[in-house]
Amino acid sequence: MAAQSTHRRPVAAWLERVGQLGQMVGETLYHLAIGNVDLRDTLKQMVALGVESIPIVLIIAGFTGMVFSLQVSQEFDRFGAASLIGQLLGLAVIREFGPVLTGVVVAGRAGSAIAAELGTMKVTEQVDALRALAASPVQYLVVPRFLACVVMVPVLTVFANLIGMIGGYVVAVHQVGIIPAVFIESVTDYLVLWDLVGSIIKAAVFGILIAVVSCYRGLQTERGAQGVGDSTIASVVTGMISIFVTNYLLSALLYR
What we know:
This protein is mainly α. It contains nine helices and no strands.
């Protein structure tokens, strides 16, 4: 009997976490559906989570495009396949590197900030104070951050795609010596609108994952300062793993 009870506890705890997560997501969608959104706080979160992440996103995307272009351009030019360089770079940056790197950056920078902020509010009983005032913590704390992530991650991804392509173009043309017209023609001939649409869809899904994971981890924080640190680490790790797993599933679904 004791052994059976021991085995049941992890399962019961896991089911309880799933139920709490589902309740939080459901309540968030409910407030969004009825328009119960604090626009001022949402704009504030967009600036904090999105606008302030632009420099690091652009730096990472730009140099990733440059490195990828350097490696690919040298090999393709050696084998006389320079006309395919722009196509391969465009597919790699827009379909994969842009949304994934943006999601990882936001999960590490903004996701950790969300978990730490909400975790601190939880352990200092500010969340309980909201409940005591008959106010919904989800409405005041989760909804603005959820909406900010869903909107800003796709916007950041568009910038990442653009800078990644520009960085790849500069290296391919000015360092490797690829003819500019060949590079541009390769990009325009093979890339289609659906590649960009799929990239934005991925980014929106990643934004949802980051917001849900970070807010949930923050609101479930316990054990004081140590708990805040644990929640922050857990939100970043879980968010990044979720992004990579979901990226595979979305790639298989969107680009078959």
